[in-house]
Design brief:
Largest sheet: 8 strands, mixed
Number of strands: 10
Distance between the termini: 59 Å
Order of helices and strands: HHHHEHHHHHEEHEEEEHHEEEHH
Helix content: 40-55%
Strand content: 5-15%
Number of helices: 14
Shape: elongated
Length: 419
């Protein structure tokens, strides 16, 4: 500073320099910001064709983001894609009205239409992380399989319900189910340490009871007017191996739910003289609650009640739906009433306390079933119209857990339409 004549521009640049652009990145930022502030802004600067293409892309992106704050512009970027499709693609969507749906697919759409679009329409490939030990899906599959074999064998042998067994008969049943499960687990042929820990949790070790024994002890306490009668009851195609479906009640054709064909597999159907219940085995820690059923997020159990009543009637068995129950296959083994008729408490299900899921009478139960049927038809109609919006803020807690598409759905930029 002593030997040079200079001006200090560290704090304030002269006006001619603040208006100058020195790099391509600065140029694009300046033009993009001008467009964002003034939607009518147009670039009149003569530039290289490559940079002009970048600017065109920026203007388009700004227009798209702006459209997400309204409900009537560029609807294809708000999840309503029908009008932007070719005629052949429109026809493909319209044909979805005639498809056969699983309950899982419909619940996926209910929670997040965009997730359904990415997974079931675009069929995007997802790279899944490798899991050590027995994965939750494998564990659930194994337990479903051995329980199916256990109960089918008891039915063939005409053995009594577990709550009618004496101590020796019950111990024999425990031994039988543990042997079936051990044989199935041993077939996995793995030396993974976590596998052995999971195996002990299922079978028990020493004086510590496993899931199998806890489950059977819970079964022995269920002295009801219904007994386990049918297992892995399948309706429709693509519902698993025929060797693991109940031949006495399953059917190859889907069940017509309103105007929609639905397929599924019901873990267990319990039958009494005048009514029946459905049971869904769960190996996870979370069960859907009544609010989910009532709002159309959880369709499985009410639709299963509808399907079983329909299938039974086709066999001239006129039984009424009584209850839908979650059975938690984990320690401790738990039972949760998801939907039930209060008039049949302690007959079709174990009643512990007043719950929202326990309805006053059969009429109210059927109203919930009818409501679920209307949701099924509403969702498929929306699919056929190309409506695949990102889920609402309210549903994100349930829809976004463990989602494979949460990095591409732009939920962080969720528009304010539902605010």
């Amino acid at each position: 500073l002593k030997i040079l004549d200079c001006r200090d521009w560290q704090n304030t640049l002269p006006e001619k320099m603040t208006n100058a652009v020195y790099t391509e990145e600065e140029l694009l930022q300046r033009i993009g910001n001008n467009k964002r502030i003034n939607p009518a802004y147009k670039n009149n600067i003569p530039l290289d064709e490559r940079i002009l293409r970048h600017i065109e892309f920026i203007f388009k992106a700004i227009e798209i983001e702006s459209s997400r704050t309204t409900s009537d512009k560029m609807l294809e970027y708000n999840g309503k894609i029908y009008e932007a499709l070719t005629d052949s693609s429109k026809k493909l969507l319209e044909n979805t009205l005639d498809k056969t749906y699983s309950i899982t697919q419909l619940e996926k759409y209910a929670k997040c239409p965009f997730k359904y679009f990415a997974d079931n329409i675009l069929r995007l490939n997802v790279s899944k992380e490798l899991e050590e030990g027995i994965t939750p899906i494998e564990k659930g599959s194994i337990l479903h399989e051995v329980l199916f074999q256990f109960y089918i064998n008891r039915r063939k042998q005409n053995l009594p319900p577990l709550f009618e067994c004496n101590e020796d008969e019950f111990n024999e049943a425990v031994k039988n189910l543990i042997d079936l499960t051990r044989t199935r687990l041993d077939s996995l042929e793995t030396t993974d340490l976590l596998y052995f820990l999971e195996k002990e949790l299922i079978l028990g070790v020493g004086n510590r009871k496993g899931i199998i024994q806890e489950f059977l002890e819970a079964e022995k306490k269920r002295k009801l007017n219904v007994v386990p009668a049918y297992f892995e009851v399948a309706f429709g195609s693509r519902v698993g191996s025929a060797n693991l479906t109940d031949p006495e009640l399953s059917k190859k054709e889907p069940v017509l739910v309103g105007n929609i064909k639905v397929r599924g597999k019901i873990d267990r159907v319990e039958v009494g003289d005048e009514f029946f219940s459905v049971v869904d085995y769960k190996t996870g820690s979370k069960f859907d609650d009544f609010a989910d059923i009532e709002s159309g997020l959880a369709l499985q159990l009410p639709i299963y009640l509808f399907a079983v009543e329909k299938i039974l009637s086709e066999q001239n068995k006129q039984l009424k739906p009584a209850a839908a129950i979650y059975y938690g296959l984990k320690i401790p083994v738990t039972e949760k009433v998801a939907l039930a008729n209060s008039e049949l408490k302690n007959k079709a299900y174990i009643h512990t306390q007043k719950q929202a899921a326990v309805l006053e009478n059969e009429t109210e139960l059927r109203q919930i079933i009818t409501k679920s049927i209307s949701y099924v038809n509403e969702y498929v109609k929306s699919i056929s119209k190309g409506e695949f919006q990102i889920t609402t803020q309210e549903k994100m807690k349930k829809a976004c857990n463990y989602c494979s598409f949460d990095m591409i759905c732009r939920k962080q930029n969720r528009n304010s339409l539902d605010d």
